Amino acid sequence: MTFRTVLALSAAVLAFSAGTFVVDGASGVGAAPASAAEVAPDTAPRDDPARVTTAKLKRVDSIELDAESLVFRRGEKTVVEASMRDSRTTVSLLNRLLGTPSRTQTAEGDGGACFPSGTTYTWGGAIRVAALTTPAQAGNAVEVRVLRDAVRSRFGDDVELTGPDGVQVGDDIHDAISDAPKADRMSFGSDEAKAWQLLLEEGWAPEDDADAAGTNGVSALTDDTTVTVLGSPMPVHAQRTC
């Protein structure tokens, strides 16, 4: 894979604000245990998802990343849904299901002029949530990246991690890329090393400068046609750098 491809993939994985493509300059910060009390300030009223019982959470066998929420499921049944506008509830539910994450703190401007301040939580190297101190312009209070197809829960069970329509890290989505309109896909690679971003589900209302913001939602990043990352918000064809 070329340096250009690696750079593009790394930037898209680690971008913290909608429409931002920058390389993580805080990767050397030491990880520390996090607790629910250390989550960024509330950005939405606490509601029913925050009060789902431990017994119900224990039955969750999959988490689906949608454009604007994380959906916790048992089979086909939705157990609870966490809005990405509510950082506290999102992180709290993941803590309760997956256990204590590693944590890094980001001050405004760390890693580049476009970096917002916030706290990034990672569970089992599989799911990463950046809780923003101030919600992004699109309205999201968190950014989510799924890096594996499953993660172990604190109860000892495997929890599948998916995107819309069951897409997972490790899947070959050649046909979906080929069939997608050009507006929903973007190539990062070269003839020798292909890499794609494919919009799986649109979300987040367009901002004032819709052309510069691109089309936002949940996207898959690939190495050739194999999914390596699922992320939201992750705009396609964003022309701005911040």
Protein traits:
242 residues; alpha+beta; 9-stranded antiparallel β-sheet; 5-stranded mixed β-sheet; 14 strands; disordered N terminus
Global structural class: alpha+beta
Following the backbone from N to C, one meets helices and strands in this order, namely HEHEEEHEEEEEEHEEHEE
Largest sheet: 9 strands, antiparallel
Report the average pLDDT across residues: 80
Strand content: 25-35%
**In angstroms, what is the radius of gyration?**
17 Å
Strand order of the largest sheet: 1-5-6-7-8-14-13-12-11
Oligomer: single chain
Low-confidence stretches: 1-47
Number of strands: 14
Question: Which shape, going by the Cα principal axes?
Answer: globular
Our measurement of the CA-to-CA distance between the termini, rounded to an integer number of angstroms, reads 26 Å
Count of alpha and pi helical runs: 5
Helix content: 10-25%
